[in-house]
Amino acid sequence: MDSSSKLLPIVLLTSTLLFIPAEGANLAIAGTCTAASSCAPPPIQFIPGQRITIEVVNLTRGVIQLQQMPVTDALTISPAQVRTFLGGNTIDPNFSLIFWDTMGLALKADIIKLGARSLRIELRPGGRPPGNRAVYLNDDGRVKIL
């Protein structure tokens, strides 16, 4: 018997011991999410190339500037005001909206899918500086907050 075959049982025993959990060790077990508060919300997505209505609501006490890139110049949206845009189509499926508070305060964007062809963007005060600055509809239909 050569020396490598004598070491094989020792190597197998050692590697087996490494994979046995220690007493009291926490084990991660995959499962389904049962409590709504512990589950991450599903990503918001639309059918790629589908035209959707995008509603932007200013829920701050200040004036916000919006710009649909590269389509519009900066537009003003006052507190409690709503602006509507059309986004996505087969020619240009991407939609980019940048926004900023005129006083330089941080903003938080919440996105809500209202229906199969409708997205609501609620702009609120807060978030870690610099806050959210844009909402982007990818050509694959996914919506991202940047």
- CATH architecture descriptor text of the domain at 52-145: Sandwich
At the first level of CATH, what is the class of the domain at 52-145?
A: Mainly Beta
Total DSSP E strands: 9
Largest sheet: 5 strands, antiparallel
Strand content: 35-45%
Overall mean confidence score, pLDDT? 81
CATH domain topology of the domain at 52-145: Mutm (Fpg) Protein, Chain: A, domain 2
Over the alpha carbons, how many angstroms does the gyration radius reach?
A: 25 Å
Residue share in helices?
10-25%
Secondary-structure class? mainly beta
Tally of alpha and pi helices: 1
Q: Can you walk me through this structure?
A:
It is a single chain. This protein has 146 residues and is mostly beta strands. The chain has one helix and nine strands. The strands form two sheets. The protein has a five-stranded antiparallel sheet, with no helix packed on it. The model is unreliable at 15-20 (pLDDT under 50).
What is shown here, in short?
The protein is mainly β. Helix content is 11%, strand content 36%. The chain has one helix at residues 3-18; strands at 52-58, 64-69, 75-77, 82-87, 95-101, 107-115, 118-125, 134-137, 143-145.
Give a topology summary.
Blueprint: H1 3-18, E1 52-58, E2 64-69, E3 75-77, E4 82-87, E5 95-101, E6 107-115, E7 118-125, E8 134-137, E9 143-145
Parallel strand pairs: 1-7
Antiparallel strand pairs: 1-4, 2-3, 2-5, 5-8, 6-7, 8-9
